[in-house]
Amino acid sequence: MKNYDRYSVGYFPPATPHNEWVKKDHVEKAPTWCSVDLRDGNQALIVPMSLEEKVEFFQYLVKLGFKEIEVGFPAASETEYHFLRKLVDDNLIPDDVTIQVLTQSRKHIIKKTFDSLVGVKKAVVHLYNSTSLAQREQVFRKEKPEIIKIATDGAHLLKEYAAKYPETDFSFEYSPESFTGTEVDFAAEICNAVIDIWEPTPENKVIINLPSTVEMSMPHVYASQIEYMCEQLHNRENVIVSLHPHNDRGTAVAAAELGLLAGGDRIEGTLFGNGERTGNVDIVTLAMNLFAHGVDPELNFSNMPEVVEKYEQYTDMKVPPRQPYSGKLVFAAFSGSHQDAISKGMRWHKEKGLRTWSVPYLLIDPKDVGREYEADVIRINSQSGKGGVAYILEQNFGYSIPLQMREEIGYMVKDLSDKEHKELSPAEVYQAFAREYVNVFDPIDITDATFMKASDYKSNDGMIAKIKVRINDEEYEFEAVGNGRLDAISNALKMTPYTFDYKFVTYSEHALSAESSSKAAAYVCIEDSDGNQFWGVGQHEDIILASVNALVSALNRQNKKDHFVE
Ligand SMILES: CC(=O)SCCNC(=O)CCNC(=O)[C@H](O)C(C)(C)COP(=O)(O)OP(=O)(O)OC[C@H]1O[C@@H](n2cnc3c(N)ncnc32)[C@H](O)[C@@H]1OP(=O)(O)O
Ligand SMILES: CC(C)C(=O)C(=O)O
């Protein structure tokens, strides 16, 4: 590919290695979450949200458990301003939720921001200016001291305006925007200049937010930068280090996780990673990654389908089918060996009554995010195998297919999917199975069967079967004795003018689920003198007649109408 040589690394790792974070292997507690869906997410939409949509989305974010929500850039537009006023005037902000607003470091914008906040109980005012080499040179055309002055002027203004509204509990946040393209020592210098003005205390900490406004490096470089900043920041114990990753290289989640290992306390991100360009960091994935490591994420995504639905409704964006934890296909196993392992794993967990989760191929239990095994996990197409097909028949329709029969059914179903070139729904799997195996009554149909004990039969408990049978539209009635019911029926059938060539290989039966109107299923396998085997399945409310139906089905599969001659 041409033109790769136009690019080079544009980021600035610390001059000395800052890699202590590498010694930790997982994040041990949830960070403070700040949703920026209504600001960063909103500013990235083709059509930003309406006031009503923002109100609903805000309330939904509260329901999910967010305690800090950046509600907008109130100086940006009338909608943003009125939205904030509505939250305040209609008392829509719960006491345990802090709203946050973003402002550039410009006096009229800061003033308008504070105007919009009048009457709010508590708020974070988030000040930013760009600090990267590229922005300094190309956009602001200013040297470092002038860039620092933009930040410190803004920091002073925030203090001044906040003092005018003593009824509001204000906190301050500063972002050296484009941090990832900023020399780390300069980033530390400008953040410290702001911290020194704000003079944080344990009661009034400040937030220093370190955005990868554009994600430029591999995630470990971002982590090293965060570790360096945590070491350099003044008054660190009273500074909340916040991370605001974007996803330009597709590694925002990794960067955020490593950044947390490196000392980050707080994450700004959005549901499903909506945001500028390739998006902000996806808070759903981050939170669920904690969950999957046994850490309480302190956000509630237990009804993921609803989260997806609401998000799509508010933003008009789509959650892709492979989005971690939330996409439609992320728990789906189509391939045979995966299905086999999952169904065995599920059974193992059930049998052992295990609460801890270790089912192969599934990072978490889909039920924990409101997904259904039946609809979401094992799905049938031409890549599927016997284990998956048997799982579908058992879970959805109550048929516990004998192990020896599974392979044959598996191939029959996958072949059908292959020919039709489509996924088969559980109902279609069942129809294919039923059509081929269950209660197959043509050309042979036993229309009536009664049994009596033949106690004199070789002094054993033999059975006498009296059957009415229709074969190729002719009716016959015979009575015969056998060492069991099926044997007696076989002997009666042999009295018809037809030749039957089979012996029994195996038989099994079980009750079907309580909801089913047919209460029993039976499975019969017969073998002809050439060694060919034929399975049949019978279904009936009466277990004895289910077994008769299974035998008849097997015989009919052996003796297809056209080939069955006297
Ligand atoms: C990475 C991020 O997501 S940052 C947030 C970005 N979000 C947004 O910008 C959405 C909301 N913004 C807006 O609606 C508008 O930009 C407003 C209302 C805030 C300001 O509008 P305007 O003043 O008309 O335009 P604009 O933002 O283009 O202003 C650019 C000027 O501000 C300066 N500027 C830009 N950002 C900042 C900042 N953070 N602090 C101080 N000055 C800044 C620029 O250097 C430029 O200066 P110049 O006029 O001397 O050239
Ligand atoms: C304002 C800052 C935090 C921002 O949105 C970014 O840098 O991406």
Written account of the structure:
The structure is a single chain. The protein is an alpha/beta fold. The protein has three domains: 26-315, Aldolase class I (TIM Barrel, Alpha-Beta Barrel), CATH 3.20.20.70; 336-436, no CATH class; 444-563, Alpha-isopropylmalate synthase LeuA, regulatory domain (Double Stranded RNA Binding Domain), CATH 3.30.160. It is built from 18 helices and 14 strands. The strands form three sheets. It has an eight-stranded parallel β-barrel, surrounded by eight helices. Strand 9 and strand 10 form a beta hairpin. Helix 6 packs parallel to helix 7.
Radius of gyration: 35 Å
Ligand species? acetyl coenzyme *A, 3-methyl-2-oxobutanoic acid
Please report the number of helical segments: 18
Helix content class: 25-40%
Write the layout of secondary structure elements.
Elements: E1 32-35, H1 37-43, H2 51-64, E2 68-72, H3 78-89, E3 98-104, H4 107-116, E4 122-130, H5 133-140, H6 144-164, E5 169-177, H7 184-198, E6 206-212, H8 219-232, E7 239-245, H9 252-261, E8 266-269, H10 283-292, H11 304-315, H12 336-352, H13 373-376, H14 386-397, H15 403-420, H16 426-437, E9 444-454, E10 462-471, E11 474-482, H17 485-493, E12 503-511, E13 520-527, E14 533-540, H18 543-558
3-methyl-2-oxobutanoic acid binds next to strand 5 and strand 6.
